[in-house]
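Section 3.1 - Work completed
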Amino acid sequence: MIRLLLVDDQGLIRRGLKALLKGETSIEVIAEAENGKAALKLVETLQPDVVLMDVRMPVMDGVAATREIHQRFPQTKVLVLTTFDDEQYVAQAIQNGAAGYLLKDTPPEELVQAIQAVHKGYTQLGPGLGQKLRVQAPSPPVSYPPGWTELTPREQEILRLIATGASNQEIAQTLFIAEKTVKNHITNILSRLNLRDRTQAAILFHSLPPQP
């Protein structure tokens, strides 16, 4: 039996959800709360399996309550059920520990399935909400190899030309410098990047993220 806590500032919504879930033998609504602060107290005393959480509520909103529950009571899963599909709400809820995010127009049978899935440890997102989450997801940090920042702009340019297959003579002609200067730069490049030869240098360059 999944012990469920309903959290919504509208009594009519809570009563409707309770009536909807009354016939489900796998779910028991053990309590209701009208805001996040009240929900925290009930989670602490009752330790429900799943919290069905609204987002916009007075006193403490659903995102803040979700964060607190996730940090203090990680065994309790939070499934957001709201009318708001804003990208910001979706991202904040998931980042703060929500196990799912559904809209209130979700069909009853799908809501029941989502509650059961969240209880088992699966993440549940309503139709189209996964795309909103991807839009909000931060880009991974750009990573360059050790020694990259020690290269001068000229050395970075020479490395780029090496990666195109240019010879020392061709690089010298392209940059209007002496071929001996090119050799000296290549020696510095290989040393700073800890590379064996220009073939490794070319491979490394092609693996780099876009240059800043």
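Second construct:
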Amino acid sequence: MIWNPFKKKQEAGVAAPAAEKTEKKKESIEERIEREIDALPSMLKGKLKDPEIKKRFVDIAKRMEKDGVDFKSIRQMKKWMKQHEAELRAEQGGATAKVETVVHEGPRIGRNDPCPCGSGKKYKKCCGKDL
């Protein structure tokens, strides 16, 4: 047998990574999600710490897992979400906040009109300069 420096040796240490993989599969969905939440940016992490949102997220993940969706494939997750979009919205029950349009009721200020702040300058040279 010729020695090959590029070929890895078959040792007892090779079996250890296989054992780690089986341990990760035993990890519950809540534990996996908790681990993933810790890796997210702080803005998203703060929202997912809310118990209601976290519970909903875990419920959806459990349903995906039950349907056999691979969590490593974003394409599969997007496809599942698209297929179940109507029922997920129905379960949410209109909990989304409705965006209201802001309408300015006062008189419109022209660029060449005097500035409403009372400086005596034209609006374009005063408060409207940064717009």
